[in-house]
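Recall the central idea of this unit: under ordinary conditions, the amino acid sequence of a chain determines the structure it adopts. In this exercise we apply that idea directly, starting from the sequence alone.
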Amino acid sequence: MTSMLVQVEEKSFSVEKTLLVENSEYFRALFESGMKESRQDEIKIQGLTNEGFCLMLSILRGERPVLSCDEIIFAVECAAFLQVKSLTKYLINSVNSENCLVMFEAAATYGLLDLFHTAALLIRDIYSKLENDLDCLPEDLISYIESLVPSTLVAVGAHSPKPEFLEDCSRTVCYLDQQQNKWKTLTKLPDEASTSLAGITVLDNKVYIVGGVCGVNKQAVEQSFCYDVSSNTWSKFPSPQQLRYDLALTSKEGYLYAIGGEYERTLLASVEKYEVSSKVWSFGSHLPQPAACTACTQTMGRIFICLWQPLDTTEIYEYETNKDKWLLIATLKRSQSYGHCLVSHRDNLYIIRNGPADDFLRCMIDRFNLTTLQLTTLSGQYVNSKGALFNAVVRGDTVLTVNKMLTLMYSIEENRWKPRKECTGFPRGGTVHTFLLRIPKKVLHSEADLIYFEKHL
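Accordingly, the structure predicted from this sequence is:
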């Protein structure tokens, strides 16, 4: 494997040539140009900081550094100058409430459009929190942020496909209008769709429903459904090759991942991924063990699940999609307790589990930090009124939880979740699926939807 020296400012780096060619459009073009630099063992790059180049190399080699504000600017400059997509992706996955303004301004300066848009979306979601800090931005950048649609909490109950002879006005997907403190109808479920024991996820602001059951015999639903909120329309797409229900469904970079589940009362270990562009399902690496109702989350561009072993043991696995490999990253032992829900915030995973012994009205929350690899238990216990905490989603620095009685929001703090705000509960009983969508104003104010809402809810 050929190495070469790359001089940036006063510092020289010994780098594998293939690493640069595979990851940088700049170096790929340089080495394929036939220019004299392409045949040299040492080249010098002008107009770039050695700090940015060093950060790029560390990320290309698989490291995950936590970037300071100055390092963000160096890294953004390097990603734009050398056209390094994997560095840009790392920056996108690192956007949070503390660095989003720096990411946004740097991306605007150096022309990284995907990072620019991602940072702007987060700023839009936490606009009120950052409003006093936005004065430092040029007016055109503020206008861009304000033109975006903030994310909205959306929920749907567990519904089986509707028999032709039965009208079921409750089969609706609803969103929380926080200003009016009301749940309103967004769309009706297709008659054939099931959300009972189905997998539901969001990709590119579209809702995907896979699996589910109909009837008391838990017959697997053979069709999958997609809701495009921008056009307010539903469409069908193929189901996995192995029919399944009670699965975990997540999405990443143009793919859906159907993880485990059950079929004909048999637990499954199989995993399938669906390429949205080609509409094709293919099998991936099996789970370490068969599992249904698997807790799953994503953070920083990484997929995580919880599996439960005998003897009060919870194991946290990461699914490395580029290697199609499951990696055990932590083991949690808690007497007479098991996990129900997994959510994430920055580099922390939160495992939400029932309280001591059989006290299911209270929850305990354990935090696993991906940087330090340390497990800690958050202080206090959390009231879990009829399963609210078991459908938690995170928006910005806020956890949103839902049940029929109330919608409760928590601020994520260092050692606890602090109750922040209460809204009205979801107007349905039973299991609730929750997720976030960016709903265009034309859909929010659809006359048909408003009429339907007033009539049936």
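The longest strand covers residues 325-333.
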